[in-house]
Amino acid sequence: MKPPAGAKSPPTQPEPAQAAPSSSRRPGMAEGQAPSPTEGGAPSRPVPPPKPLGNPGSDFKAGDHVVYPTHGVGQVQGIEAMQVAGMELKVIIVTFEENRMTLRVPLEKAASSGLRKLAGNDMMGEAMETLKGRARIKRTMWSRRAQEYEQKINSGDPVQIAEVVRDLHRNAGQPDQSFSERQIYELAMDRLAAEVAALDQTDKNAAMNKLLEHLKQG
Fold first, then answer.
1. Fewest Cβ atoms closer than 10 Å to its Cβ: which of 9, 58, 63, 185?
2. What separation in angstroms does the CA of 40 have from each of 36, 43, 147?
3. With contact defined as beta carbons under 8 Å apart, do 167 and 135 qualify?
4. What is the mean pLDDT of residues 67-81?
């Protein structure tokens, strides 16, 4: 029905603003691809696991077995003073026999770097219980999960490393396990076994057998 001559049409209501399509996409997601149902409401980037706080520099002495987040178990050789830019800097000398590497950690930055003594009974006990748990595999792309696994391994936290071992153990040695899955699994096993061996004062093979026994109980 046409409005009477001379009558003004009612003002058109503005349409609600549409969110930009790119705001709903996550990094690496193709345009138009919907987020995974398991990721609804999740932040656009995975939040890295918190880095465990290390021990103060004054806690270390020569002969201590220690853990550095990105290198695993090493041994303190001592604390030395060195000249840096005309200033004296005290550093903790840590050697990693397996990698034939020496690391110098500034004494005042030992805690923030994550350098720590071996895990206590409570923390390692929690890691062992984690191995017995049910694998939790996220329904996300492998590249995303691999990044999260690597972050957990490099956190230096034995509980988080145990989560990686637990989640990837199911397919260990299976034909459908990818090369990168096997690499990450073996790295996590190696890191955890090295700390268990240092705690139990045994070799790494004995420590790995201990870890496998706990995995079988899951």
1. 9
2. 7, 9, 20
3. yes
4. 95
